[in-house]
Specification:
Elements lengths: L2 H20 L16 H9 L17 H12 L9 H14 L2 H9 L1 H10 L8
Helix pairs in contact: 3-4
Pfam families: DDE_3
InterPro entries: RNaseH_sf, Tc1-like_DDE_dom, Transposase_5
Protein name: Tc1-like transposase DDE domain-containing protein
């Protein structure tokens, strides 16, 4: 992934899903990966008045999307499932993503304060999350 591809992905997803998911006012979260902090990407967010959540370096323990990806991966590859084509895999990923329960996502979201406290207690080190 480079900054141009990331920008294309973000701009398509923002126009398609952001307002539907969170309403008109939202704060976008991303980490400090090079593609996320590229000038062209920063410019896109500034031009479109999209606020970015300030994110500390090396803080994967806070981000709940890692848990979501893990849940999704386990569902997609349950019982050792293998795929015969990329399209078959994509279809399964889409189906499993749509099945993901909002209760699970809400529970993860509610865990963020505990995650932050745990990171502070561990001086920025790894946590159980």
């Amino acid at each position: 992934m480079n900054s141009d591809k990331y920008l294309k992905l973000i701009s398509e997803q923002m126009t398609t899903h952001a307002a539907r998911i969170s309403g008109e006012k939202f704060i976008f979260q991303q980490d400090n990966a090079a593609v996320h902090t590229a000038k062209i990407v920063k410019s896109f967010f500034n031009t479109n008045n999209i606020p970015i959540l300030k994110w500390p370096a090396r803080s994967p323990d806070i981000n709940i999307i890692g848990n979501c990806w893990g849940d999704l991966s386990r569902a997609v590859y349950a019982k050792g499932r293998q795929f015969n084509s990329v399209n078959e895999l994509k279809e399964c990923i889409t189906q499993e993503w749509e099945k993901m329960e909002q209760k699970r996502i809400q529970k993860l979201f509610k865990s963020i304060p505990k995650r932050i406290i745990s990171i502070i207690k561990n001086s920025g080190g790894s946590t159980k999350y």
